[in-house]
Amino acid sequence: MAITINKKMIDFYGKDRLIKVFTENDQRGVMTQLVARLNRNYPNRDVKATDFSLLDGFEDYIIDGLLFDPTKRNDQIIPKYRELLYNLFKQKPEITYDSKMFNKEVAAKFFTAEQIRKIAEYKLRESDKAIHELTSAFKKKGETISKESIRIALYQIKCNNVQDGKLCDKLYNYLLNNMETNDNLFAKEYILIYTGYLASKDLNIPMPNYYLITHKLDTNKMSSNNYGICYGNTGIIGINRELVNNNFTIDSKIPSIIKFMQTSAHETRHASQYHNEELGSISLMTFDTARQDLFRNYLSSSNYDEYRTNYMHSEIESDANLYGWRYTFKLISKRVTDSQKYTLPLSINEVETKYK
């Protein structure tokens, strides 16, 4: 499948702001950002969606000019960014499974022939190891899967290289069925992002970018508007990293990973609402989405947050909550072979009304 870019995110940030990611930072600063994104590691401070999405948007902007729209090609930045990325590759070759610039289709237009050869040699070795490890795990079951193999699978999703019933799909099913994910944040991230990927397919919208973040999400207050956030029609979704990492759940009988699968689907439904509003789709939900935006923008003030005040009565929240639970239940019933593994004590109707 051909690589895709997040055009909503590019449009949201705009060309000038995306270029500043590179031009307003020295090479060491950009490299620090790349390594932080690679490691998902921003110690001792709030983690914002922009910590990840600005860099992703910048790369999507470069790819747009390389593959899709030659009028947007930036020949001033391309050679400088190529040099920086290749130097980082020599230090941390695992960057090839984090940056879209190393995707085969993009690399052919971005890197030199010699650089492509070196990158391909590394990727062949690593992909062979990952395929061997995953194939073995899928047969034996119950084995721990390495962070490196999960990273490669996450990269396939990022580059839109996912096929039904193939590696990414099998890994998702395997993690849901066989692996205890409580202490494995990378595995939990994979489950949540793949849930979002499946939900975006189900809703027929471009897949958003999903990030584990803490910014503007109260990690100590366990309320529904702290689980995740959809940033309107930007193609960006954030999920509360600390609650995921700490295995928070709304009910001791409901596994944490189920709650946050619901959050991923819930926020994807919001992305669908905004997407359809932009398209001008005629429906009651499109009307409710537009009305909610209007109320939030014009009734909120420094002393009054209309959205949070009326959250429990919002039609678009009820719709997203309903979709999130129903789609999560659909995934579990279809993909989990052990009916006892995720047995929930409540019916779907009870869960929908009790846990908004």
Q: Which class do the helix and strand fractions yield?
A: mainly alpha
Shape assignment: globular
Question: Total strand count, please?
Answer: 3
Strand content range: under 5%
Strand order of the largest sheet: 1-3-2
Separation of the first and last Cα atoms: 37 Å
Mean of residue pLDDT values: 83
Low-confidence stretches: 218-224
* Radius of gyration, taken over Cα atoms and rounded to an integer in Å: 21 Å
Main beta-sheet strand count, sense and barrel state: 3 strands, mixed
Number of helices: 16
Order of helices and strands: HHHHHHHHHHEEEHHHHHH
The amount of helix comes to: 55-70%
What does this structure look like?
With about 350 residues, this protein is mainly alpha-helical. Helices cover about 60% and strands about 5% of the residues. It has 16 helices and 3 strands. A 3-stranded mixed β-sheet has the order 1-3-2, with helices on both faces. Helix 10 runs parallel beside helix 12. About 0% of the residues have low confidence.
